Structures are given as C-alpha cells and as structure tokens.
From TrEMBL:
UniProt KW Transferase keyword: yes
Keywords: Glycosyltransferase, Transferase
Transmembrane segment boundaries: none
Coiled-coil residue windows: none
Pfam families: PNP_UDP_1
Family stated for the protein in its record: Belongs to the PNP/UDP phosphorylase family.
GO CC field: cytosol
Gene giving rise to this polypeptide: deoD
Protein name in UniProt: Uridine phosphorylase
Occurrences of domain Nucleoside phosphorylase (ranges): 18-225
Catalytic activity of the protein: uridine + phosphate = alpha-D-ribose 1-phosphate + uracil
InterPro entries given in the database record: DeoD-type, Nucleoside_phosphorylase_CS, Nucleoside_phosphorylase_d, Nucleoside_phosphorylase_sf
GO terms of molecular function: purine-nucleoside phosphorylase activity; uridine phosphorylase activity
Length: 239
C-alpha cells in the first residue's frame, strides 16, 4: 500500500502519532525516545518511524513546513492509515515579551489569514480548535509529571508566510486576534482533524522572540525540545 507521499504497509503506522515540522526532529525523537523502531517513510525525506514508548506503539513523522505540506500528510495519515490522533510538536516565534526561549505552549486555538479551510472542507473559517479531550489529557499528563505550571495555554497564529513584507504586523495580529506566537501548521492540523472527526493537539516550544531578536540555533530546534516531546509521548500513551 502506498499513497502519493507515504510508502507504508497497512498496520505499519500506529494510531497515535507525533508530528514535528522538521523530519530530522522526527528522527531525533525516534532515536532518543522510542524502542523497537522501524522506519516507514522516506519519500521526499519526510521521515516516518514507528516504535514503542513504554510498551505502547507510537509513530512519529515530519510534516514539512506550512499548511499545504502538513495538509497532505495529515490527510493521508487520517484517511488511509487509520491514524486517530496527532500531536504536533513544533517551534514558534513569540509575539510578546511575556514569553521566553524554550517556553512550552499548548495551543487552545489557531487563527490564520489563510484560505486553507475554504478549499479543504468548503467552510471558510479562520479559527480552528484542538480536540478538547486530547488537550485536557495534555494537562492532566503534565500535572501527573509535575510540569503543569510550565505549560502556557495560547492562541497561536498559523501563518502562510515566514518572511512577511511588513515585519512588524505581528503587533497588529497580537492586538487584534490575541495570538501570542506564530507557527505555520496548527490551524490546518486542527481543521483537518475536526473535518474528519479525528483528534489533534499542538505543543510548541518558543524558538524565537520577535520583540528581542533572541533565537535558538537550528540544531537546538532539531534536538533541544525534549520537555515538549516527553509530554506529548506521555500523553499519547495515556490516550
Ligand atoms: O519547527 P517546526 O515544527 O517546523 O515549526 C515552525 O518552524 C518552521 C519555520 O521555521 C515552520 O514549520 C513553523 O511552524
Ligand atoms: O513560524 C515560525 C516558527 C518559529 N519562529 C518564527 O518566527 N516563525
């Protein structure tokens, strides 16, 4: 069995899946957190792996950058491979000085200026929400791990454009829509999951602060987001 973008046999992908944007973050997660790992995809170098975490099957796969890319993989995983829940584990840029590098956010909604929903489902909405129970599970898992006070609930901006012509318009987006950070995929993931009656949530680690110019390195974006990854894995095996 193969879809245009994923070459996995039926049953090779677990029903619970972690989805970073960066395929090398997916490889890092598989190599450092999972046992009995089997690769299931390398088409276009969008690496996918299935293994076990605390004895439970879990898969991890990159989404690539942006909603068009994530939209392809999430749709094929949910509709062709029986994936039931996806937690995105991404990086984000902070729009406010109240956030610092390595802070971990749980998205409670994603706002976008994109037309993704209009053409994916025919419903032209601009705000999408994670699955309620999965988000609640993230918090109860964090509580059990003793890290709940390090999580911040946040509305995020899912942007189609990384290099915007008006590099300061994030201040308007923060003021007008209440988005405290920017990334590029959560809206599409939430909208696809809701449309297909599947589950999705999104954890983000702050990698840039737009107000101060502080930023982590590319290597840190690949390998240093371990608190978020551990919380996502613990949540998936509890769900
Ligand atoms: O680090 P990831 O998960 O890729 O997330 C963020 O980083 C990329 C931009 O550098 C976009 O994909 C954005 O959403
Ligand atoms: O989309 C993103 C992700 C991280 N940092 C940003 O500034 N934007």
């Amino acid at each position: 069995m193969s879809t245009p973008h994923i070459a996995a046999e039926p049953g090779a992908i677990a029903t619970s899946l972690l989805m970073p944007g960066d395929p090398l973050r997916a490889k890092f997660i598989a190599e450092h957190f999972l046992c009995d790992v089997t690769p299931f995809n390398k088409i276009r170098n969008i690496l996918g792996f299935t293994g076990t975490y605390k004895g439970r099957p879990v898969s991890v796969m990159g989404s690539g950058m942006g909603m068009p890319s994530l939209g392809i993989y999430a749709h094929e995983l949910y509709t062709q491979y029986n994936v039931e829940r996806i937690i995105r584990v991404g990086s984000c840029g902070a729009y406010t000085r109240a956030l610092s590098l390595f802070d971990v956010l749980v998205a409670n909604s994603a706002w976008t200026e994109s037309t993704f929903a209009r053409f994916y489902s025919g419903h032209d909405c601009k705000i999408a929400y994670p699955h309620h129970d999965l988000n609640m599970q993230l918090f109860s898992t964090a509580r059990a791990m003793g890290v709940e006070d390090r999580l911040q609930l946040a509305r995020v901006h899912s942007s189609d454009v990384f290099y915007r012509h008006d590099a300061e318009d994030y201040r308007d987006i923060y003021r007008d829509y209440g988005c405290v950070a920017v990334e590029m995929e959560a809206f599409a993931l939430f909208h696809i999951a809701q449309t297909l009656q599947k589950q999705a949530a999104c954890l983000l680690t702050v990698s840039d602060c737009l107000e101060t110019g502080a930023a982590v390195t590319s290597k840190q974006r690949e390998q240093a987001f371990t608190s978020m990854i551990e919380l996502a894995l613990e949540t998936l095996v509890e769900s």
